[in-house]
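Narrative summary of target 7.
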Amino acid sequence: RQQATREAEDAARREREQARAAEEEAANAVAIIRQRLETIERSKRQLQESLECTKRREEEVSVEVRRLKGLWRRSEENQRREREAQNDREKDCNNNNSNNNNSN
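Modeled conformation, tokenized:
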């Protein structure tokens, strides 16, 4: 009887030790999963911040492109006006020269 009791106690002790080891392993797994989840959440926040920054920069660039296109169009218009004014002046000079030559 004592032998059977000792064997039963040993078996119960082994089961408790195995249960404790399993609980410890599960707790370690949960801790690892939590750490990974925190890392993922941190990465997600960083990516969201980076995306927001990229969107802001894209908008800034878009505004700058529109501004530069406007400047370029105005510059082209000014150059065209200057060419037309120069052509008009040259025509006036040519007309004046022609009139002067005709009066001589």
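The chain has one helix and no strands.
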